[in-house]
Amino acid sequence: MIGGGAAGFFAAIHASGKGREVCIFEKSPKLLSKVKVSGGGRCNVTHQPMEVSKLIKNYPRGEKFLKKVFRHFSIADTFLWFESRGVHLKVEVDGRVFPVSDSSQTIVDVLLSEAEKSGIKIFTSTGIKELNPSQSGYELITEKGVFRADAVIVATGGHPKSDGYNFLNSLKIKLNSPIPSLFTFNTPGESIRELMGIAVQDGLVKIEGTKLNYRGPVLVTHWGISGPAVLKLSAFGADWLYDHDYRARAIINWNSLYGENDYLSQLVKYSQAHPNRKVYSHALFDLPARLWEHFCFKSEIDPLQLHGNLPKKQLNKLVQNLFCYILEVNGKTTFKDEFVTAGGIDLNEVNPETMQSLLHPNLYFAGEVLDIDGITGGFNFQAAWSTGFLAGRSIN
Question: What is the mean pLDDT of the segment spanning 343-350?
Fold first, then answer.
């Protein structure tokens, strides 16, 4: 097993037994590091159970491939596996699933415990320099020596650069160049950054000139905008944004329940009902007060302006800022510990029923090393559990 992350451990655990000697080789000194930091240290294990047809819609890349994989190990199977080992899970309002302990260490501990019970040998700080086929299987060349294996599962996770896959060069496996997925939008020239920490719960973010859009929470940060809506949009728009050097115009509707005419009619009704109230002083549409004041300022509304005599020009500008707020995006920010990449091993070279390479016998792949990535919400871990299970169980 090459890789000591979620997919690697899950594959190793399911490959153990039947008299096999199973080893995990991890290049870093730490095991399950991404599991440890995920979900703010709580570990977003998976998502609320759903039909496979709905589940696969949360993967910008690998949808058809995963449709076959998830038939073998579903979200319900993930619940059963962890809870049967004493890890109680809870479903939050947005569908994300966490251990009841709210600690990722709970997940780390159960994986380490199961590996120990299964007699799995673990080698940390042991990176694989080369993986070469041999007459009896494969040779794993490391700085600590040469190891031999009858079968190998590659679960090294995603790499931000193609050279992270160089250890596979002798196998001539097709690789789709990795590019970032799940990142925030940097808006260095925009004044909204002064409102960092402010969030709305139901925004709609679009990328101008495309059909790309996503609805959900939006967070203002010191570098631009983030939150689930932006992160999910970045995943589905990863290729387009990469091709455009992460320069784009983001268009935001700050409350997706309202259309342009809805905003206008509600503002007119409010002005008729409360003509003597200051526009600045009463935030509408469930928006934070500071964000509402920002929109008033951007709409050139005087701080003392009353609703009853708000000029039509300023009213229309306010509607546009609420419904069609434009931000110039210039760059991205990724999270080093939790980065997700689009790209990896081409899925056309892997059997989705077994995770075995179609070119090399007894060579399997699991997790994000494949050209698979999901949006936020536990979907990347679910892909890791499912592909890891299938790879481990498929070894002859």
Answer: 97
